Amino acid sequence: MIEVIHPGILSIVVDGGRNGYxxxxxxxxxxxxLSALKILNxxxxxxxxxxxxxxxxxxxxxxxxxxxxxxITGAKVETVHNGESFNTxxxxxxxRGDTLKIKNIIEGFRYxxxxxxxxxxxKTINSFSTNLExxxxxxxxRPLKKGDIIGIINPRIETSKTIPEDIIxxxxxxxxxxxxxxxxxxxxxxxxxxxLFEKNTLSCYKGSPKTNRTGIRLEGIPLLFKKGIEKSIIxxxxxxxxxxxxGDGMPIIMLNERTIGGYxxxxxxxxxxxxxxxxxxxxxxVQLRLVNKNEAKRLSKRKNEIYWAYTKxxxxxxx
Length: 319
Prior knowledge:
The chain is α+β, with helices and mostly antiparallel strands.
């Protein structure tokens, strides 16, 4: 078992998501940085999208009531285990009575804490992920609180591993976010679009404090609608990474808690950059760069090749 001593700013149980239910209005609610979750479970020898704790902020701390291996990925953090400090991404052995505390966030925003074993919580609509808005899934449908105790099914000790630096993504601002054109790209004044996205220029926005798991609001140069164009559309489906433009012209990048939206969709973030959205925090500089579909596929392929090369090496070493 694990016991929450301090929950940080926001700690929730997430997994690979509640996929396949968007037509019923049920969002994924998955980990925002899915690559970090996959690598976390790879080094723990868990199923790829086994549940973990997604955390924001320093101060998060646990007390362990059983022997197991623990790992942390996502944001780079300074971790204190029984009084000794070390940095992540790494896995390490813990014993009954050990404590773990996140002392400082070095780089990034959200990080993932996992264990060699599966959390003893029930699935809701085929997922362990927490839906905060509806209050279901995860641990009692809510963020973790001090004193919460979560059982771990079949905890075990695994060989400690550290992720090579060349596998760990850069999470320092300014964040370069690539996107492809959305259905309503032509709703906006061409001169503004060209000056921001189409002439090898890099738009520069900042993350707004009005940011949560539903979406990331950006502050900067507003996109202007063409004359006669309605500033809202009939609500349609949106994917994670959809860049919506409300009436004030400021982009909102949708995350994992919505299935429909009523704002014009200027673009969709490439799959290669969606994990990075987990690490855009208020005040960070964000650069939006338009790419075509072929370039988006190339970026995604390159990212996948890095992941699969690493996991293949892991399997070979384990033999």
